Structures are given as structure tokens and as C-alpha cells.
# Entry
Amino acid sequence: MLEFVLRYLNQLPKDYIVVIVGALPVSELRGAIPLGLSFGMPLAKAFWLAVLGNCLIVAPGLVLFEPLTLALRKFKIWSRFFDWVFERTRRNSDAVQKYEALGLLIFVAIPLPMTGAWSGVIAASLFKIRFRYAFMAIVAGVLCAGLIVAALCALGVCGLKAVSG
# Structure
């Protein structure tokens, strides 16, 4: 799917592509930082562009997620989809439920599939964490995850050879 998106984004400046890939729920930071590096960007620039992209969805997501899901749940297909998303988020977010904002930060900071800013927004909504605490925890988690991914890329663990061709 990422290749499909990249094909259509190819006309944009590389900086914009990294920000957009950082904002996508499929890739987030885990895809945006290595992508920026494969474009020849310095690590710091790739890091900050990816963090910016990933953080762009936090505030709107926290405000709009619950009303949007309530409206879409009226349709059977969306109701099943949100049941699946919520169940997966609940399974992966015991720390969020127990420690609230601190747990949310830790949950978002771990750069694994089904964690990250998008899942953090869902978890904050599910566990009714107040906006300001959720926002700060998710942004701090994004920064931590970005540092982990950047460190792995600097150590050569991200597989840039596979990304660049």
C-alpha cells in the first residue's frame, strides 16, 4: 500500500512526501524516517519532518474521532470495522488503561505495528483521557518513537538498502 501511495505522491517535493507518509496510519514514523533517509536527507531533517507529519493528526483526531465513529457506526460495515479496531487497540493497551496518560505515552513510544499516534488517539478516546493530557502524552510518545527509529536507522537496522532499491 505504501508503494501505491508513494507513486501518487512522487510529483511533490520530497519534504512534503516525508510529512505525508509520517501522517499515514500505515507507515507513521516507522516508514517516514527511513524514507527521508532514502531520499538523501540528513537524519535530523527526516526525523523532524516525520514527527511533524505524525503529530499533525493528533489534535484533529482527538477532537473528531468519537463523533465520527458514532456517526459511522450507523452503517453495519463501519460498525464491524470499528469493533475490530477497538478490540485490537484494547488488546494492545493494558498500560494505557492502567496508567492513563503515562501509559498512553509508553504505548505510542513503542514503534511497533498497532502502536503510534493513530492508535494513541483511538486509545485516548476509548479510555476517555482528557484532551490536554492525551495530546501531550501522544506528542511525547511520537518524539520517543521517532528517536528510537532514528537511532535504529543511524545504526543501519532500518534496511535502507531494501527501501532505496
Observations:
- The mean pLDDT is 88.
